[in-house]
Structure formats: C-alpha cells, structure tokens
Specification:
heterodimer; A: 337 residues; alpha/beta; globular; B: 165 residues; 6 helices
Chain lengths: 337, 165
C-alpha cells in the first residue's frame, strides 16, 4: 500500500510517499527545498502561514520525486499532535480534504509514535518487539516500551526541558547560534569531558523521568563564575555538558531495558543524530548484551516518512479517522510503572 | 511613567529560598486567578520561570498527569484546569507578525489564563492589562520575586495575595 504522509506539527512542513510502512519512495522537508523560489517571496521562518504556503509545493514535490501521480496514493497519514495547533491544522485539514476528495482512507498519527516508526524505514535490520526506545528531540524527551507497531507505553519523560532544548540553550549561552545540537556535538569531540564536571540530573535512579533544567543552569553558572576564562574553554564546556546529558540518557535507557527485560534498544528523534550519544549507547548496549537501532541521520529530525510508516500500521489494524477528527497540542503524560 | 509609578506602590516583593517556595507562590497566585488574566514572566535562565508556572498550574487545578514542561520549542502548551492555562514562550519568535500568525492574539481574548515568557517581545497593545512577575537570581537558591500590576484587576489580585501570605 502506498501512503502519503504529512507532517506540520512544528517548524517543518513535510510530505513523503512510503510503501508498506517500510520503503521510502520520496521524503520532502520544506527547509530543504527552495520554496521561496517557487513562490517568489520570502517564506516566514516559523509560522502557520509558512505551512500554508509550503503544503501544496511540498506534497507536489513528494509525489513527483516518487515518480508517481496523486491517483496512485492509496491512503493518507497525518500528524494530529502534539504540536502548535495552528501549524498542525494546516497539514491535518489538507490531509482530510485530500482523502475526502479522492475517497481514500486517512488516519491521524501521534508525532512521537511517528518518530518511533522512523526505526522501521529503509533498514534491513528493524528493531524486534518488544523494545525500549529513547525519543529525544528539541521538544520531547521520553522513554517508551514498544510492544507492537501500535502498542506503546510511556515509561518516563522530561519534567522541564527536553534534551534538545538544553543543547539549544547552552549553545545560546556560548553564543554558538541556533540550533545548537550539531555545533556542541562537534566542539565536544575536541574537548575534555572530564575537565569540567556538571551535575548528572538522574532524579530517581529507578524511574525514567528526566530533568535538564538544572544542568542548563549549572552551565550558565559556570559561565558567570568564569567571565574572563570561559571562552578559552568552550570545547571543554561543550564536552562536559554533553558527557552529563549522554550519561543520563544512556543510563536510563539501559535501565529501562533491564526493567522491561528487553535485549533490543533504540534511539530516535533529533538528538539521535548526536555522534557522542550514538557512539556511547552502542558501546554501553554492547556491554549490557543488547543491540541498538538508530535511524539514519536523514530520519532523525522531523519528517513525513515516519508519519506514513506509523499510519500504515494503524490503517492495517483497521483504524481510520473521520471528518470530525481534530488535532491536539499536548499528549497527556500518563506514566506507567 | 504614571503606569510605572502606580506599579511601584502596588508591587509585591517576595524572597524565595527554594524552588518549592517559588512553586508555592505560583500556586497561591493560580488559586486566585480569574479568566482573561495574563501573567507575564521575566527573569534570566534558571531563575525559576517554569517552576513558577508549575505552581500556577497546581493553583489552577491542572491534573497532575500533565507535566508542565518548557514550551520553548512548541511555543504554546495548553492545559485543562479550573480555567484553561496557555503557557507561551516567545523566545523563538522574532517579529510581531509571527506572533499573530501563530494565533497569539486569540489567546488573550479566550476565557483562560495566559502565562507568557519573553513577553517583552510582544508589543504592549496586545496585552496592556497584566500581572508582571520578575524573578531575579540572588544566590544559587534564593530568588527575589516581584509582582508588578498593570491595571486594576492585577492590583486587586496582588492585594488578595498579600492578605493570604
């Protein structure tokens, strides 16, 4: 079955064509194509209007790049939340209208479940059920126990800042620009992670909630306490900060695998692109006798292929949405022990 | 000037010695809030803005299943409660046009409470009556929290808090 996936929950407008939930025929993300050329104007950076202007050319590009026509699309999957309501509604309404006009099934998909499905795309070695996955991005950080394509349990999540957000805010303090994940990862590789010790915010070591706000403040305090010298130590600050983040993320993921008796681990979301995290979780999982799945870099950030992949499994399980369906801005944080 | 002068007279200054105390002050305010109130928050990174809003949410009876997390990335988080709570962070927005595009103006006219971080980025015409909460880091644990009313409703709110402290 060929699905059109649509994603517009935050900054990116994205569309993708995916066959059978595994094979990417095309995947287009608005920030990667020159929309302003097609539209003869500058597209605002971050606004629902950006999605309105991007949605048609992005879907067009996805269909064209797959070498297909719209009539060959058999179903539509679209992000229904969490995210910014105004942005979500653009993709959601578009998907609804397209499916209605073409008389094909459609389904709304949770953005976070989408990220988990990025693990099943373009790979000959997808994760085996059941597994535990760390989902870390600019807006979310949580650990899930995944028992099937449509059965997820949230084990824990951040109580304040997401891991990716902590990276962005530390990058801002060090005047390294936005977004900050990539640059801190690069500088950290050149620094000494033991030179400056930052606190590891484990909270309750037996539970799976995170907190990165205090770590962010600790970096800020270091900068304020060393106004004359911190600039010479940016690599060490980046390395010390990254070490603290990676320590906590890896500890909790391995711990979750032990508690849930899983030999299969996974990492997904924008922070899964972090080289320091990728290397460390591979090593630690190996020691714990577990294997790890991490999507290719192109699928770590927000994309629509993952939404199509998740939607495929919901449709296969018989779930469809009707015209009355609506978007939501927040998922309830239901933590199961 | 007149606004600032009256704000000075009616302002409330509180010393918080821990995140728990900051949360408690937020909770007290949350219990007293009425629909249509905007609470603007100002303070450096780590000064306790999110902690204060966590208390505010408790006071507004947001179910504990909802974690009050930083809205920096998603820009607007909304929560159900005694009154709906919109937690907004304008950190990533740069122009007033962007703020209109994301539907910010509509939030101020809803029967809800808006907690607004980085409010200084938004032209005052959108929310001229509000309660400003300024959090200042004094030491690692101690914060100076100043509540400054803009408008009579906010001044009454501070009067009510003073009675209950």
């Amino acid at each position: 079955m060929i699905l059109l996936g649509i994603e517009s929950s935050c900054d990116e407008t994205a569309a993708a064509l995916v066959a059978d939930g595994t094979t990417i025929l095309s995947s287009v993300v608005s920030s990667q194509i020159e929309l302003h050329r097609a539209y003869g104007g500058v597209v605002p950076e971050l606004a629902s209007r950006k999605h309105v202007e991007a949605i048609v050319p992005v879907v067009d590009a996805a269909v064209r790049q797959a070498g297909l026509s719209l009539s060959q699309v058999q179903a539509v999957a679209v992000t229904k939340g969490p995210g910014l309501i105004g942005s979500l509604l653009v993709g959601f309404t578009f998907a609804k209208a397209l499916a209605y006009a073409r008389k094909i099934p459609w389904v709304g998909v949770d953005h976070l479940e989408g990220h988990i499905h990025s693990l099943f795309l373009s790979t000959s070695t997808p994760p085996l059920f059941p597994f535990v996955v760390l989902l870390a991005s600019g807006g979310h950080t949580g650990i899930y126990h995944v028992r099937s394509h449509t059965d997820f349990i949230l084990l824990g999540q951040t109580r304040d800042d997401a891991a990716g957000e902590a990276y962005d805010k530390v990058a801002k303090m060090l005047e390294l620009g936005y977004p900050g994940g990539g640059v801190i990862d690069r500088l950290a590789a050149q620094g000494n992670p033991a030179a400056i010790h930052f606190p590891r915010p484990y909270l309750d070591k037996s539970a799976f909630d995170f907190s990165f706000s205090g770590l962010k403040s600790a970096v800020n305090r270091y900068i304020l306490d060393h106004p004359d010298t911190y600039r010479q130590k940016i690599n060490d600050i980046a390395a010390g900060f990254q070490e603290a983040v990676v320590d906590v993320l890896c500890y909790k993921l391995i711990q979750a695998a032990k508690v849930k008796n899983c030999r299969q681990l996974a990492v997904a979301g924008g922070v899964a692109a972090n080289q320091g995290l990728r290397a460390r979780i591979q090593a630690q999982a190996g020691q714990a006798g577990c294997s790890v799945c991490i999507p290719p870099l192109s699928l770590c950030g927000d994309n629509a292929a993952m939404i199509a992949a998740a939607g495929y499994h919901y449709l296969k399980a018989g779930k469809q949405d009707s015209l009355e369906a609506d978007v939501y801005s927040r998922s309830i944080s239901k933590i199961c022990p | 000037m007149a606004e600032a002068a009256s704000a000075g007279i009616n302002a409330l200054l509180v010393l918080s010695r821990s995140p728990q105390e900051t949360r408690r002050l937020g909770q007290l305010l949350g219990q007293l809030l009425v629909a249509g109130t905007t609470v603007a928050l100002a303070g450096d990174l780590g000064s306790g803005k999110t902690v204060f809003v966590q208390g505010l949410a408790q006071g507004l009876e947001v179910p504990p299943a909802y974690y009050i997390t930083s809205p920096t990335y998603a820009i607007i988080h909304d929560y159900p409660g005694r009154l709906p709570l919109f937690h907004v962070d304008l950190y990533r927005l740069t122009s007033p046009e962007e703020m209109e595009d994301i539907g910010l103006c509509e939030l101020f006219s809803e029967r809800a409470v808006v907690a607004l971080e980085w409010a200084e980025r938004l032209p005052r015409r959108y929310f001229h009556e509000h309660l400003l909460v300024v959090l200042k880091i004094l030491t690692e644990d101690v914060r100076e929290i100043t509540l400054i009313p803009y408008g009579q409703a906010a001044a009454d709110l501070i009067g009510e808090i003073k009675k209950r402290m």
